[in-house]
Known about the structure:
The longest helix has 20 residues, at about 5-25. This protein is about 40% helix and about 20% strand. A hairpin with a 2-residue loop joins strand 11 and strand 12 (about 210). A five-stranded antiparallel sheet has the order 2-3-1-11-12, sandwiched between helices. By secondary structure, it is an alpha+beta fold.
Amino acid sequence: MPSAEALKNKKKLFDKVHEFLVKFKNILVCDIRDLPTNSMQKMRKDLREIQTECVSGKSTVICKAIKDYHENNKKKLPKHLNEELLEALEKDIFKYQLMLIFSNRGIPELTAILDKYLCEKQAKPGQLSPIEVIIPAGPTGMDSSQIEYFQALKIPTKVVKNQLEITSATKILVPGQKITLSEINLMKKFNIKPYKHVVKIEHIFLEGKIYGKEILKITPAYMKDKLEKGIKNILNFSMG
């Protein structure tokens, strides 16, 4: 049996979700896995400054709040909501460590804030590398006594004024490769953090329409590039 405090918190979350579904026309479904709590608090503060609200917590509870609103308001939904959108919301949020962002602001303004909170983390032994890691050629800032360490890792070096220099860039990890303690120690020496965590926008609901995260690529710079390429193609065709 849930405690009185748990029931109170659940009702508070339900009330928030119901209020925000009516008040805001745009909803971002986000995965916030591995983001530190202090970053999330700062992000919420920044979003509130542009009249934007967040709800995070157990996806099952948030889904139940949406379903509860849906069932009780089928005949009086605001213009920006519809049956398809609410059903999609209920279905799409289970797989994430969830945060819903409710706003009436444009997507570029929201993503500009979210992108500020990139969190870089060092790897742990046994994890799979998410990226390719290349140690660049050049000075290492280490003295010649550590040459054996680099030789064991098959990284070519030379000694210049008692300082080690890497003679050619060396790949130490590829995506999917299991990371060992040797690679971790080497990445620490070069301050390389392979894990980069950000708020991942998975689904976008804009004024009653549903979009995938692919639309995030459509920025003013992207449209300008496509327009310039189109004009160039027409010019080349005309001259031909």
